[in-house]
Amino acid sequence: MQSASIAETVQLEDSRRVQILEFIKANPGSHLRGIKRELNLAMGVLQYHLRRLEKDQSIISRRRGLYKRFYKRLDFEVEEQEILGVLFQETERDLLLYLLKTPDATQKELSEFAHISASSTSWHMKRLVEAGLVKSRRQGSFVYYVAKGDPVKILTLLKSYHPRIWERWAERLADLLA
C-alpha cells in the first residue's frame, strides 16, 4: 500500500515538473511569482521544482533587478534572455518599443509618452542601458536614447511570446519590419 503512494507521489511530482517546464517554454522570462500565479502552485512546491529543473539542467535562471527569470535551457542566447526579460516589464517594454519607432527620443519625450516622471524614466532607461538594449548620449542638457538591439529580433520575440501586446503595437511598428 505504501509503495503505491510513493509511486503516486513521484508521478505527481513529475507531472508538476512537466507542467512548470511547459509553462516556462511557452513563457520564457517568467518570474517566480508570475509562474506561481498562473499555475496556482504553492510557493514552496514551485521553488522545489524550479531548483530540481535547474539542477537537471532543463532550465536556467537569470537575475534581472529584483526578479529571477526562468528560461528553457539552450533555447535563448543571452541577448534574447535580456529582451524577453524586458518584454515582461510593461514600462520598460513600452519605452523600448517607442525607441524602435522613435530613435533619438529625449528623456522628456519618453516621460510624456509613458506618463511617468523624469526620474522614473531615468531609472527605467538606466536599466535598459545596463541590459545592453539601449544606448544614451548627452548633448548639452538633454539626454537622447536609441535602441541598440536588432529590431527584427525584438519584434519577433514580442510577436512570438506576447501576441496581445504585439497586436496593440503592430500598426505603429509595421514599417520597421518592411
Describe this structure in words.
- The chain is an alpha+beta fold and 178 residues long.
- It folds into 2 domains: 2-75, Winged helix-like DNA-binding domain superfamily/Winged helix DNA-binding domain (Arc Repressor Mutant, subunit A), CATH 1.10.10; 82-177, Winged helix-like DNA-binding domain superfamily/Winged helix DNA-binding domain (Arc Repressor Mutant, subunit A, Orthogonal Bundle).
- It has helices at residues 2-26, 32-39, 43-55, 78-87, 90-101, 107-114, 118-130, 151-161, 163-177, and strands spanning 30-31, 59-64, 67-72, 105-106, 134-139, 142-147.
- The strands form 2 sheets. A 3-stranded antiparallel sheet has the order 1-3-2, with helices on both faces. A 3-stranded antiparallel sheet has the order 4-6-5.
- β2 (59-64) and β3 form a beta hairpin.
- The longest helix is centred in the first third of the chain and has 25 residues, at 2-26.
Major beta sheet, strand line-up: 1-3-2
Q: Tell me the domain tally.
A: 2
Total strands: the figure is: 6
SSE succession: HEHHEEHHEHHEEHH
Q: In angstroms, what is the radius of gyration?
A: 19 Å
CATH architecture tag of the largest domain = Orthogonal Bundle
Query: Approximately what portion of the residues adopt beta-strand conformation?
Result: 15-25%
CATH fold category name of the largest domain? Arc Repressor Mutant, subunit A
Average pLDDT metric: 86
Per CATH, the class of the largest domain reads Mainly Alpha
Question: Can you summarize this structure?
Answer:
65% of the residues lie in helices and 16% in strands.
